[in-house]
Fold:
Amino acid sequence: MSQQPSTPYDQLGNVAQINGIDLHYVLEGEPNKPVWALINMASHNLTCWEIVLHSLLQRYQVLRFDLRGTGRSGWGDETQFNFAQYADDLAGLLQHLNIHKAFVLGVAYGARTAAQFALRHPHQLSGLAMFDVALTPPVDQGDQGALGAQAAELLEAAGQAMPERQKYWRFYENRDAALLCHTAHQREGDTNALLHNITTPTLVACGRQDMNLAAAQEIAQLIPGARFEVMEMTGHGSIFYRPDLFARLVTDFASRLNDG
Structure:
């Protein structure tokens, strides 16, 4: 019988006991550099960041981790699949690693966790970036496919190639746990009313071809001093449409924070 080819998912990182579960993570980069914590979008594991990882590691230490129930992380009971819990898990992981502050970056579902982290653990936050974000349930994503196809056509017409999406970005250990993680929005109310409490410098960005565009713009308006960016020719999951633009927006924003 032929052996299945190895993928980055098969290369186990580190595991820490956080809030009663095994949390799978990878911390890379030079120890003297500022730390960035990356939070995956729904149905993805920590390998999905590989398309921007090289760019980010030029300037930062990068912490990637699998949310509970996704990738190689463990999981608890159903009540623990919510964005506040995911934020608390990240806070516990940072404490475990003796990281006092991190720039937290989340995409889509990951941005919901990033928002909760900013509200619940502001003392551990040096900066915040939320891409493709909406915080008001219910979530209607019915037209995302058509909008994404439109963005892909625009990129092709402009001579810009999209990266190939890899199957292993979505690998996980347990189907039921992964589904509970994917449906966390069903267990959370509207967070918009709390956003005025976020005082950390914040970047909000969203693709032009993303159903969350109006919601993301509203979120930026509700967070004091937040910067808002529209990504042209970009659908939901902007990192997978224009990774170079994604990396440039967030690193330029963080650089201005450091210069200030």
Notes: The first strand starts at residue 14 and ends at 18. The CA atoms of residues 154 and 233 lie 6 Å apart.
